[in-house]
Design a protein that fits this description.
Helix content is 49%, strand content 8%. With 542 residues, the chain is mainly alpha-helical. Strand 1, helix 1 and strand 2 form a beta-alpha-beta unit. Strands 3-4-7 form a 3-stranded antiparallel β-sheet. A two-stranded parallel sheet has the order 1-2. Strands 5-6 form a two-stranded antiparallel ribbon. It starts with a strand and ends with a helix. The longest helix is centred in the first third of the chain and has 17 residues. Helix 6 crosses helix 7 and helix 20 packs across helix 22. It binds one RNA strand of 76 nucleotides through helix 4, strand 7, helix 6, strand 11 and helix 15.
Amino acid sequence: MMIVTRFAPSPTGYLHVGGARTALFNWLLARRSGGKFLLRIEDTDLKRNTPTAMRQVLDDLRWLGIDWDEGPEIGGPHGPYLQSQRREIYDRYVRQLITQKKAYYCFDTPEEIDRLRKDAEDRKQVFLYPRPERFPDPSEAEKAAAEGRPVTVRLAVTETEPIVVRDLLRGEVTFNPAEIGDFVILKSDGFPTYHMAVVIDDELMGVTHVIRGQEHLMNTPNHQLLQKALGFRIPEYLHMSVTVSDSGGKLSKRERPEHLRKAILEKKDADRDELAKVGRISRQQLDSFLLKESIPDMPAIDAIAAHLGIHLPEINVVDFLKSGYLPEAMVNFLALLGWNPGDGREVMDRQELIEAFDLSRMNKSNSLFDRQKLMSFNTEHIKRVPPEILVSHFRRFLEVVHSPVAQADDQLAAHLVRINEGARTLAQIEEKCRFAFVPDEAIEYDLQAVKKVLRKEGAIDILKIIAERLKAMSEFTAEGLETMLRQLAEEKQAGLGKVAQPLRVAITGATISPPIFDAVKLLGLDRTLRRIHQTIERFKDE
RNA sequence: GCCCCCAUCGUCUAGCGGCCUAGGACGCCGGGUUCUCAUCCCGGUAACAGGGGUUCGAGUCCCCUUGGGGGUACCA
């Protein structure tokens, strides 16, 4: 039998790494087994959906290299793949259950339900919805709706035998049906609940294996109850461990705003009107955010953080893109969070992951999202990925972060990548090369660099000599430069550093750059000379 | 509160009763290479949560305790 897996995100925001990991494992299983992987959008909660989220989720999956065989934008035999477009299908099954007296209408307001739940809590009992003696018939539902009462449908949970969930990872987990109340399957807005929609779609779409987060383990008995009531098969289930954050607790989208909020509160001198302005939000919105009352959208968060110069922890997939990580590293790292090939290998590309993947090698325990380990994978993959792929990643990165380096064409970008061997992220390559893409007068001299290098005895003199000899060079090549600089160092009876460092600071303003010969060559003779002179003028009297 | 899951170095993990004097990777510490930042090379530090069983033998099986995580919605 062909294995069919799926990833079913709800478009409530950007795809975060936890979701990406879930998608990845489903994808790996499908690819390993020659099965199908499909994508379905669970947008049955109109309050939480955001219009751009689906687009972003699809982009992020594609960036990671996780492709789907059926789903949004490509279609397939089981569409539509947006649950919001499948209302008639769900309605049909809801009606079926009502006709069979397996489900029934309810007309309670949320307030009434809240009261019942509170009462149960006060008595220290589990809340179970009080099933009516007689189920209302459709005419009563119509009447209630006409009167403006909310109409929902609940499944009558009449099961008395223990419900056994067979989990591929955890074995058999037994639940007591007496603790599962009659749960809602159709909401008062006419949309099915998650439980109802997921069970129907997985059946209709032929999903054979459901790999999802441990947070769904407790939902599974409900799903099995529904599958039984509807006469559906029960797919294989595997509930993965959860990825927790290095700041403690489950990895959450809220971490970025939280981090920023703390940073703002710590900076007592920060001008809050100014912050609101750079975030393009009102002062009231900012204050409300600082009081933990609300959370601004992501562009605002990013803008304010950038303004304050603070690095927010990456959570969403797109955050990692913006920090200069490679999708290959992300996929590799995520795959190793809760799985391993068993032969000690760690650095693997997608193909190697697919070939080695095996459900039996998955782990049960939660794992911590360790950014340092991710960084190490990124370093490895920068070295490992084919040059043309790396260049295309680099150019995409430059676009996304709006770098001045984005002016570079493929050939130049390839060169920049080549002269920065050993970089850990694309961001590091960009930082080191940016000096060559900004106007001469725009370079800022790093305070530490000036102090450590330019103000040292003889530094300015060396710059003068370098300028003279550069002008005297017959041919401006990296080799020629190297010969010239090494010779100069020898004359001064010093290491190359004695010569290279002042030059580096003069042309970049900083102590970090690509290798000095490459850096000068990149900038070109004229601009190098101009920057040297500019530097001499500025620091000669200090 | 109730329900469920989990438990080996700081982190990711190998280990599926004797091959374990517990292995690897990341990090960290020390050293080396180097024009800066990195990369790279060498060395070192560091763990079976605790307590009971089972067994000739337990990191590996069972129970309890503790700890961590998840769930407890007309969210998914």
